[in-house]
Structure formats: structure tokens, C-alpha cells
């Protein structure tokens, strides 16, 4: 038996602030921020001389333990699972499609502990709730990275090629687990950090990004309602296929492109006006499509927040709905007390998560 190796992998959560739905179509752009909320995976590797490979995953946040065996034909057998977890199973099966990985893992024992750090959950009325910052994508990326580290497919220094391999396999596994083809922006943000997203020939690419130095993002948590992302997406896409949708969609697209350009150029002055336009456009989209991407109940909160000193913009995050909204604020100028008071009257509070523009971090602990 080889001496044990212990690795640590950290993956940030995400917030898609611009580009919702648009990043599914060519020619459009988006902005996704990586957050201080991070998933940490600790990997312990032991090589064995005989017997099947074993992968044991434990996580109090995911709700238990999963043990998989890998035979010499690279077939995965479920030995124990606290509950079905398609993200773990699909990630393992996807990584095993690489012959070099399969030959290594079939005679290796892995112990992986997965922990979601502060920011992914909040307490309300005595119950724990998710914030919507992407635990499924961070877990998938961290787990895929651990499997590749164990098989010597990647290592330290953690190169650009290593990141690309992790991102590619994690996106494939994440899509397979959800039985749908997403854009992959959440995985890209976790692996690379805050980025500007662009779509060319149906392929999503990314460039590094940070908010302008004088701006910060404030994220919401709480509220009494939640939304289903697949339902939102299905409703909006059905509307997009209807005759007469193009004019409104083009106005939304142009506003989005102007906001992305302003943030990339660190031009703060036009943001407030553009975000006011965005709220009205998203409300029109919501009503026209019947999707609820911007619920009527949220509009007063966002509009009132926009009137507070130091706030330059507000919007719903990601696919929209009730799950999360945000405010962009000027550091040192915004009135935190007024934002907290306003949001609390509507059942929301401020998340402790903030932008942390770095991506995945890999360390060899022993």
C-alpha cells in the first residue's frame, strides 16, 4: 500500500448577475461572479495491491455517505448510498471514460469529504434553506477534481489545461445528472472565478472579470417563496418560440449588452439608468411569457432599493424568480442600515457572501 496523500479542493459558488437566458444564444454576453461561499472537498488517496477500487464520499451537508466500487472493467457498483445522488454517480462514471483514470481508480481507495462552507445556507423559522449559489455545481466540480487528482490526470501546479479538463468533465456530468443541457456557466465560474461569458457557435467561453474597484455586490436570502429553475426556463423558451416575441427580446438583449459593457469598462455612471430599464424589461418579459422571471411581489423591493443612496443597480440573479436578488452598491457610500431595514420588511435579509473573484483552489496537504 502506498503512503497516503491528502488533497484539498475549494470551489466558489456563483451569482449570474447579467445574461440570464441570453447566454443560451449566440452573440450574447453575461457576467457571473464567484462568491466567498465555497465548497471544500478533502481527498485521501490510498493505492491497494488487489481488489476493486473504492470511492467513499461523506458529507453532512449532502446528507450522508456514498460508497462505490470500481471493478477491472471500469463498471461502477453502488455499495452504499444514504440517498440517490445523481451528481456523484454521473461524475464518477464520466471521469471513468478516460482510460488513464479507469486504470488508476480500479486499484485505488479514495475517501472524499465534502463540506459546503458558510454562505450556501441560511436559517429561517428554525429551518435550514439553500441560498441558490450553486451547491450542485460546486460539489460536482470539486468531486471531479478529486477523482482526477487521485488518478494523476492533473496535479500541482494546477495548470490551465488541468482547469479545462475539470471544467469539461464537470459540465458533462452536471448536465447528465440533470437530464438537460445547461450552459455550464456555473461550473465555469467555480473553476475559473468571476468571468464575462460569451457565446459563439453555441459554445460558451469566458474571460476573467472583477467588479469595478468601487463597487460591491449585496445578495439577498430568505423570503417565503421559491421558484423552479427548469419551470422558469421552459416557460420562457416556449414564449421565445411564439410569433411577436422578438422585439421585446431584442430590447432586453441590447440593455444586457450595454450593462455588460459598462461593467467591463468600469463605467459606473450609466449603471443606475440601465438597471432601471432592465427592471421594466424583465417585468415585461415576465408578464409576456407568464414565467415569473421577475415576480410582481419582488418589483417594489427592487425599485425601493434602487432609490437608496449608493445603490447603482438591482436585479434578480440567474434564471430569476424568488430565489435570489442582488444590489450593486458603491463602497463607502451605500446605506447598509436602510437596505437591511427595507429588505427585512419584505421577509429578506442580507447574505454574508460577497464577491471573491478567484476560482478553484487545489492544495496538497500531505
From TrEMBL:
One of its GO terms (biological process) is farnesyl diphosphate biosynthetic process, mevalonate pathway. Its EC number is 2.7.4.2. Pathway: Isoprenoid biosynthesis; isopentenyl diphosphate biosynthesis via mevalonate pathway; isopentenyl diphosphate from (R)-mevalonate: step 2/3. Keywords: ATP-binding, Kinase, Nucleotide-binding, Transferase. InterPro entries: GHMP_kinase_C_sf, Phosphomevalonate_kinase, Ribosomal_Su5_D2-typ_SF, Ribsml_uS5_D2-typ_fold_subgr. This is phosphomevalonate kinase. It is an enzyme of class 2 (transferase). It comes from Blastocystis sp. subtype 1 (strain ATCC 50177 / NandII). It comes from the Eukaryota. Transmembrane segments: none annotated. GO terms for molecular function: ATP binding; phosphomevalonate kinase activity.
